[in-house]
Amino acid sequence: MATATPVKARGNSLVPTGTMKKTTERGTAPAPAACDNRPEVDLLLRKSKVVREGERALSIRAQEERGRAWADENGYRVRKVWKENLSAWSDVKRPKYDAAMDAVLNGEVTCLWVYALDRFSRKGAEAVVPILGKARVIFDYERLDSMDERDRRWIIDRAENAREYSQRLSHNVRSTKAKQRNEGRWLARAPFGLVADPATRKLSPDHTPYICLVKGKREITPWQVVVRIYNGIAEGISARALSRAFNAEGIVSATGKAWTGATIRAILVHPVYEGWLTLTNAGKVPAHYLNPDGERVRCVTDDVLPQMIPADLAARARRLVSGHQMFNTAEPQTGRRVHPLTGLLRCADCGHAMSYGGGSYECQYYSGGGACTRPASASRPPLERYIVEAWAARLHGADDDDELMIAVAERWQALTRPDETQEIRDARAELKAAQAKLDAFHADDAADFYTGRSARYRIPHKVAAEKRLDAAEARIRELTGDSRVDVSFVVNGHALKVWEDADPGMRQDLLALAIDRVTVTKSPKQGGKFDGDERVTIVWATPEGAEPDADEFEQAA
Description:
The protein is of the alpha+beta class. The chain contains 18 helices and 20 strands. Helix 6 (about 220-235) packs across helix 9, helix 7 packs across helix 8 (about 260-270) and helix 12 packs across helix 13. It is elongated and about 110 Å long.
């Protein structure tokens, strides 16, 4: 039986019959008959994931049908079908394309069939020159054969035309998008809680009710959820606690799934909720879009801007969730009528609080049925007397520049001037966040993040980070430059007299000025005399933002 001879793409030949199709790992291919010794051809099929408006792209299935028809007409047997659903431009990795090219260049297969040159590659002549005269690649739509000398020029010209088309289209798309972004248009899908105007692509809060809460059966809007997130975090609620609350109430996230701490934080860090246009970098917090003048761009109209999240609320919530600012729920407060050591004592075995009851301070966890193996318990009078005396002695022996006295001054100011103290606390937290932002810039810069298209953002981001740090440092100087707090009433041996004259609520506040917590161990023997030196460890206060040293600040009284 004569061997079928490969025929040029323009030609025709008889179609061998008696074949069946079988499924292979990479596609479908006809199963050769027992005497089918026709040369083999691979099919390379590609369709972009994104089909641009007005572009008619042949489907993968339609390309395969045409490829099989060509093989039958020209006396070939399809060996493998390589399918791609991605771009053929830029630096996109194409493992199927590479494998198909290796197969035809290495002689594993006689021919490679491609529907059209722009389905093969849009990198121009550099993609087609390696195959000219070396391997047979059939470009069906253009009816060109890489092994035909007369087709060489046509193949190179058509490949360069495809490249120029992609270059021009890419340039036009980038220019159009840049113009739209400079106008503040949101080009992607609107983030959760916001809606985009179809005509202007400007964003505004989404007030459409989208779910009924399990508790109360009332409707809630996406924007109300966003506002609740910012307010809740700014008030000291953790992201996890807030997500648990949402899930318990039946509120679903933007994806229809349960809330997590990560989804809460993703909303918190997004500048769009303040009305800023952003660019999203993979794995990074969305960055502000900067126009050619290096200025941020609003993606909301002037009348909508007052409805967005205020900048100070957003900044406070982000500092809290990132750990740059702590929410002090144990801050001293006047007017409380509690036992002096309540809130300060901890059981050394389980770490839980100790509460007063029956004349003694006891491990609260053990009292409630918890499995504390060595629950601490101490009679109130000797324990209070020991701690108060240690407190007074520590204050009496402290120098003016002792970090304990700085902490005492800060806490006394918080007790007597809470509004002013909150301003200072916020300013210090902003200073910490600004420093972290500048450090992040330098880390990105060292990692060559600002290269290529991102190079134009390097200087604006550097300037913005430095300006933020300068402003934070200036605010700290403004608030604390001339501020002095007089705490002489508890030093120089006056602490015990102040304690005796104070009411129960103030006594707790006075101890909290200098003590963070007190750890108590279980008595070595039941009914034994209380030994404070052996059983009590006092952790002394440190200035806000300072890192306590275990050897210096956590010591036996």
